[in-house]
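Listing S7. Sequence submitted for prediction.
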Amino acid sequence: MRLLLVEDEPEMAVAIIGILARHGNIVDHVPTIEQGREALKAGVHEVVLLDRQLPDGNGMTLLTEMRRRGDTTPVIMLTAHDTSKDRIEGLDEGADDYIGKPFVADELLARIRAAGRRAATYSETVASVGNLSMDTTTLQLFVGGGMVELPRREALALQILIRRAGRTVMRSTLEEAVYGFDDEIQSNALDSHISRLRKRLADAGAEATIYTVRGVGYILKAAE
């Protein structure tokens, strides 16, 4: 999953990122409400982990703003403010879950998975083109009924491409989906990932391929 962590305590942020990254997640970390607003504009995060006590105000402000503009991205409040009153307030404002600090790592991971599954029930989770089908929640790819293993970044790129099959996806959109905010991206990194992904699909007998739209991006279409 691609997760957004809004947390201002450096040591806590490092600990949370370590837990999540070890389980295959990409984590973007910002320490303030304002930076959280900017991060959410990318529209690439599947779950938001949100602290309440932040340098520029109460994290609940960001949650309220999200829900008022119709943003249904799952939000898990992860905070030391953990009285019954705090939890009720958070859930009433639209939080999907509320976890007090300190927390148990396995429980946090389970609640993130649960939030992701609940969100997936509101959208189509399996996308197909040609003989390709992909569960866009688990990132499992099937070609002609057989499962094909993909490295995570290639799977994230294909997730975007197959959801928009037949339409050009801009390079910037793919880079936002594949790389974390703190990743150093080489100029040809995305091209290399797409090239390897294209070869894997061909080797697996895919009846669809990724075409380059020069100077713009890429498009996944049934093979011509």
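Caption to Listing S7: primary sequence and predicted structure tokens for the chain studied. The first helix runs from residue 10 to 22. The chain has a mean pLDDT of 89.
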